[in-house]
Fold each of these.
Amino acid sequence: MTRGNLTVISEFLLLGLSEAPEHQLLLFSLFLSMYMVTVVGNLLIILAISSTSHLHTPMYFFIANLSCVDICFTSVTIPKMLLNIQTQRQSISYIGCLMQMYFLILFLEMGNVLLAVMAYDRFVAICHPLHYATIMNPKFCITLVSVALIITHIYPLTHTLLMNTLSFCASVRIHHIFCELYALLKLSCSDIHINELVVYTLGSFLFVTPFLFISLSYMRIFSAILRLHSSQSKLKAFSTCSSHLAVVSLFYGTLFGVYLRPSSSYTVGDSVATVLYAAVAPMLNPFIYSLRNKDMKGALRGLLSWRKLFRRPRTRSGPGAPGLLAATLGNLRRLFFSCFIKQLSKQ
């Protein structure tokens, strides 16, 4: 159906990575496992940070926010793909597709800005350690996250409004596992130069600027580390940045190659590269932040210890709930922001 010079599309077809029936069970099992690991891993990070008082610091506050973003980021795309595989349907409504694209870009950009904020946190901790508590105070940390939440809506909202004005050709087959920006532009019969202009201007500014800020921060950090006299001090300073550097490398490794190029050069094979930052990176982030961090490993061991798992606290009314369940419910009842502010105010 047409309306004026626009083709009205009611739904798109998400073809996924493969249409072969013999591959569907493997893909379903693979992405379900990745999604479960992502959600459970990041939830454990959030619970470990919120339940451990000595982790109520700016660095772990930002890590907890990044874990929330990773959960939301994968929840926008993977559940819909799993549902399509299970029901043998590939359709997604037009409105649902635009909403998926909006939240995908939103959480992608939010993670980008949070990585820049975390780089600034490491810069202050290493280059200005005596003023760290004063600069990275609770109010300032919450302001940074709040500003990130606000400004990250600009780019996806712009693209969603522009996408809603485009006309589409007869084919509505998207060779992707979700409604990705360039995959949608590839189907359009309209002039997409304005869309590409937004990518190269607003998109470059909002995505490349945090990357340049991270690069500049680490240039200053490495310069400060090299000036340290003790090898042990150098190693300790670098270890506080190694996890963040690994996450940054994983995040930007595929992001620029997929987005910062003309949409006309988009190929089906790029959907595989997109999966790396859409599913693999959020799954690996909890491991990166926990395996090389003694405090985080200690908090996770305390959260998952068998003693706490099966211990029943003694109360006047008799045995209570298992220790881990009670601790988890207690953690959920407490606001993380309140704990964070209270702990830092004591420093």
Note: The chain has a mean pLDDT of 80.
Amino acid sequence: MLAARMRVGALARGRRQKFTVYPTINQILRPSPSSSSRFVSTLPAADPSLSPKPSLLRRAASVIAIGLFFTSLGIAMAAAPAAPIVNELLNPPTDEETLTMFKPETDHEREVEEYINNHPLTKEMRSREEFYESRPHLKIPAPYRVYNLTGGTLMGPGRVVVPPVAFVEAGGKSIVSISYLGHELCGHPGIVHGGLLATMLDEGMARCCFAALPHKVGLTANLNINYRAPAYADSYVVLRATTTKVEGRKAWVEGRIETLVGEGETPVVLAEATALFVSPKHAALMMNLYPTA
């Protein structure tokens, strides 16, 4: 009986040894967590300290390039407002162009402008071929006019209402200029300040002789004025000047300011003057920096 049981047990163990358990397809395709972690852990970890760094020379070049870029940008931004001024200095408007630059904005300006344009003296001067017409103050670059006495400070409503119109004879021989003087230019109530008449004579006589001087520019060396009659405010005046002598860098000029009158009427002389103008040695540089005629 015991022997029979032993044979049955041995037979059962033999059968169990013959049946091998194989993994299923899902087990094959889905690796176990332990095997996956073992596979990943075999890859080398990235070390930030091993990343290549740019050389000192390359870093210095980058810093210099950035500095130059922002420096150039700053210079360009700073110089931008001055560009139009430089352009106007190097390329001032022609005499013909100045005649179209002024646009009257008020009824009074339009009235004064029309009166000057249609006056018999204006028509006479335009018919004389030896004279050229211009508005000299408009050759000054616009941003500079606010710092200019006759072209900016004294110009405007109540003062010199419209830019004076000038007729200059070729070769610096003579000049005729027409202006309107407002009520804000007085030294006494209703009477134009004598200092303004002196300024007008100084500037007008200088412009008269510029073309006769080397480099077409000169400075006042002497100015003598005699006042003959009151100049009333809100009135038209005429400046006349003639170059009497030129010697090298020197020019002598005579001039006067008188009232603007109609045909057949006699003007009243308000002030007379004589002056000496000298073209400086550095006149060529002045011509490049500032238009004078």
Note: The chain has one domain: 81-289.
